[in-house]
């Protein structure tokens, strides 16, 4: 694949990541990006600067504290800008799993016995187990089930579950195993039609471009910053009027402080400040994109460029896998319909193959990836697991070739 055919120059993109200059990683092609991406220089600079200059308690009256507060506030503003919402949408907690756990407690006190929530069996456990536990409080849980062969979630099946009693739909933007990009705007529209809310797990989608939440029409969207070139934090966007209605989960005296009500465990201040670097990096990507890439602002332009880059990179890999009889590919064969999170079932456990791929300089993942229910629905033993090859726009054509060569050597 010639570099000139890509909307992003890989070398210029990779110049934003110190990891690619790290001698210990030389020759190692990173294909476990769905588990956590490399961190951009923009994020690292903000993180180090905070620790060096403003590692004090923020929101005080002395200069260093004031600067620390401003750095944290900027992160909320920049995340909101990237999502096309106002800053009062943004909440930052220690992780996505912790954030959804707190949301579950809040909704558990807000919903009434007999109310219905819809979950899927395509999700990571963080966005399904939390809601299923509400059955202990008298909430009725309905499951939107995947196709047992493909892992696809069909909107027709969702329609069959909807009625006036449904108050909440929890679904993934895309699965961390199936990879198919779900029609979130359509899910949100269906929810609104019956007076229900939508909570969308964007953890596996956000690394490929932060979405415009106004266009999606969702009520809650969350992602893990460490998978989007940032620090180990969980970022939630919650419609402000909904956040104000949910019961306070923090200290009682912080009830009037929106940022504290749904993130009771205050995450690291420096990492909050560093989240602004995610937006900085996305703007840098927009600046590197081919002039033919369009978008109404840098964040939409970056999103378009990243997706186009990933589709081009995924095409030869998916074509190769389509011709391997020993491989059961999970999810769509068309790279435009999926994130570049490509999972496959092999005759032997995924971990065994991942171990051998490491000898070829391929860093791949294997296992159930906290999607236990999904694997069971697909007829895959969670202990056997899948081999997962996941990458982002910073992957190079040469690394795709390296991966295909390694697979050819190791797959039966």
Automatic annotation (TrEMBL):
<keyword id="KW-0663">Pyridoxal phosphate</keyword>
<dbReference type="GO" id="GO:0008483">
    <property type="term" value="F:transaminase activity"/>
</dbReference>
<feature type="domain" description="Aminotransferase class V">
    <location>
        <begin position="31"/>
        <end position="403"/>
    </location>
</feature>
<keyword id="KW-0032">Aminotransferase</keyword>
<protein>
    <submittedName>
        <fullName>Aminotransferase class V-fold PLP-dependent enzyme</fullName>
    </submittedName>
</protein>
<dbReference type="Pfam" id="PF00266">
    <property type="entry name" value="Aminotran_5"/>
</dbReference>
<dbReference type="InterPro" id="IPR015422">
    <property type="entry name" value="PyrdxlP-dep_Trfase_small"/>
</dbReference>
<keyword id="KW-0808">Transferase</keyword>
<dbReference type="InterPro" id="IPR000192">
    <property type="entry name" value="Aminotrans_V_dom"/>
</dbReference>
<dbReference type="InterPro" id="IPR015424">
    <property type="entry name" value="PyrdxlP-dep_Trfase"/>
</dbReference>
<dbReference type="InterPro" id="IPR015421">
    <property type="entry name" value="PyrdxlP-dep_Trfase_major"/>
</dbReference>
């Amino acid at each position: 694949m010639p570099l000139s055919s890509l909307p992003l120059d890989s070398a210029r993109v990779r110049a934003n990541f110190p990891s690619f200059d790290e001698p210990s990683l030389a020759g190692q092609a990173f294909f476990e990006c769905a588990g956590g991406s490399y961190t951009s220089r923009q994020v690292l600079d903000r993180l180090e600067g905070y620790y060096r200059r403003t590692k004090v308690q923020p929101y005080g009256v002395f200069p260093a504290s004031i600067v620390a507060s401003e750095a944290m506030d900027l992160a909320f503003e920049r995340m909101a800008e990237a999502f096309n919402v106002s800053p009062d949408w943004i909440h930052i907690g220690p992780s996505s799993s912790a954030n959804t756990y707190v949301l579950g407690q809040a909704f558990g006190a807000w919903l009434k016995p007999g109310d219905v929530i819809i979950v899927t069996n395509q999700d990571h456990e963080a966005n399904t187990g939390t809601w299923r536990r509400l059955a202990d409080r008298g909430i009725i849980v309905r499951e939107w089930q995947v196709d047992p062969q493909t892992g696809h979630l069909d909107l027709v099946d969702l329609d069959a579950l909807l009625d006036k009693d449904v108050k909440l739909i929890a679904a993934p933007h895309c699965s961390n195993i199936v990879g198919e990009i779900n029609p979130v705007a359509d899910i949100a529209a269906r929810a609104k039609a019956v007076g229900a809310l939508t909570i969308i797990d964007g953890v596996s989608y956000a690394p490929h471009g932060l979405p415009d939440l106004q266009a999606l029409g969702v009520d809650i969207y969350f992602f893990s910053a460490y998978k989007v070139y940032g620090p180990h934090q969980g970022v939630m966007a919650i419609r402000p009027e909904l956040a104000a209605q949910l019961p306070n989960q923090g200290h009682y005296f912080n009830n009037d402080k929106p940022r504290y009500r749904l993130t009771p465990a205050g995450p690291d201040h420096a990492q909050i400040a560093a989240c602004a670097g995610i937006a900085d990096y996305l703007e840098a990507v927009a600046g590197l994109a081919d002039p033919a890439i369009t978008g109404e602002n840098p964040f939409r332009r970056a999103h378009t460029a990243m997706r186009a880059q990933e589709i081009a990179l995924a095409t030869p890999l998916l074509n190769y896998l389509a011709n391997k009889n020993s491989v059961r590919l999970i999810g769509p064969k068309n790279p435009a319909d999926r994130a570049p999170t490509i999972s496959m079932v092999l005759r032997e456990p995924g971990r065994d193959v991942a171990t051998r791929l490491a000898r070829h300089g391929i860093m791949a993942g294997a296992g159930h990836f906290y999607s236990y229910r999904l694997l069971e629905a697909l007829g895959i033993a969670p202990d056997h697991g899948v081999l997962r090859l996941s990458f982002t726009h910073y992957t190079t054509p040469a690394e795709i070739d390296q991966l295909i060569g390694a697979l050819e050597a190791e797959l039966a």
